[in-house]
Amino acid sequence: MLGVVLRGVLGATQLCAPRYRSRRAQATLSAAMPGTAGSKKVAVVTGANKGIGWDVARILAEQGHTTVVAARNEELGREATAKLQKATGSQGVLFHQLDITDPVSVEAFAKWAAQELGEVNILVNNAGLAFKGNVFGAAEAQQTLDINLFGTRRATEALLPLVPNGGSVVNVCSMAGKLSIIKDKALRSRFENAKHADDVTALANEFVDAIKADKLAGSGWPSSMYGVSKLCEATYTRLLAEELSTLNIAVNACCPGYCATDMSSWKGYKTSAQGADTPAWLALEAPATGKFWSERKEQPF
Ligand SMILES: NC(=O)c1ccc[n+]([C@@H]2O[C@H](COP(=O)([O-])OP(=O)(O)OC[C@H]3O[C@@H](n4cnc5c(N)ncnc54)[C@H](OP(=O)(O)O)[C@@H]3O)[C@@H](O)[C@H]2O)c1
């Protein structure tokens, strides 16, 4: 499946990158996950210009890992990078523009990463969107899914050829996107039994179509655009982990907890630094693959 997915996103040239080809037949996930060996890694954190992403990048940079602040807004990204360099005293903090909804931006980022970084040991897909207040509609649901699901998938698939043996992919999801938000048994089982990332795409599209057709009530879907997008992202994470199960690459989902950031209108009970703990821990020491984590503890999806 991954081959098909990668071909779709990257084209045949990158699919056949030697680094990706050379990773065949590797051992199953071992205790020796990134960071545990004490070696310096290369990390990319999306949406790292502020909030939880900035603090994940700070933790990684503080431990001496080369850390890329990936942000869609160049000015904000450069400011955040300068702040991070000052806070950590690290020269290994880099900036590169990345809008995960823009295929051109993602391709340019992946090309730069291949040329300048060589490999990406840690990818933290943190960039995300939640509309505030009572905003609800098909266009808004599409935009939420475009960032939280499709953007995360696009960035992941573009950078996966650079993730070597021992790498870690962390998708910052949410407790608001657990399977339990789907009360309808038939719909829930479609999430549970999804086999391919495209099954998740189909489910996401159905959600938007139900809103468009004004048929959400009685369709089995909850009315949370953010919750559905994060459930889709977590399901995608689980499927990707299964797909990569023969490689020594950890792929995990996590919830940072309710954090006071721009997204939460500064109402959370945790700081962004506290929220960054679990994603940064997974980036460096993931004890397993294909799991959902909160407060460094495994949770059901
Ligand atoms: N805060 C919470 O309580 C909470 C709880 C559970 C999960 N989460 C998750 O944690 C992650 C970080 O959230 P946060 O609270 O730190 O939110 P935040 O302060 O609003 O930060 C979100 C980040 O994502 C970036 N972003 C949005 N769309 C993007 C795109 N298309 N391409 C690249 N970057 C993009 C934003 O960039 P701009 O600055 O340019 O907008 C910003 O850097 C999200 O995935 C969120 O869903 C947060």
From TrEMBL:
Recorded coiled-coil stretches = none
Question: In terms of domain of life, where is this protein from?
Answer: Eukaryota
GO MF entries: oxidoreductase activity
This protein's UniProt keywords: NADP, Oxidoreductase
Gene3D superfamilies assigned to the protein according to its UniProt record, in alphabetical order:
NAD(P)-binding Rossmann-like Domain (3.40.50.720)
- Provide an example Pfam family for this protein: adh_short
Q: Which InterPro entries match?
A: NAD(P)-bd_dom_sf, SDR_fam
Q: Which PANTHER family match?
A: CARBONYL REDUCTASE 1-RELATED, CHAIN DEHYDROGENASE FAMILY PROTEIN, PUTATIVE (AFU_ORTHOLOGUE AFUA_3G15350)-RELATED
- Indicate the family of this protein: Belongs to the short-chain dehydrogenases/reductases (SDR) family.
What protein does this entry describe?
Answer: Uncharacterized protein
What is the taxonomic lineage of the source species? Eukaryota, Viridiplantae, Chlorophyta, core chlorophytes, Trebouxiophyceae
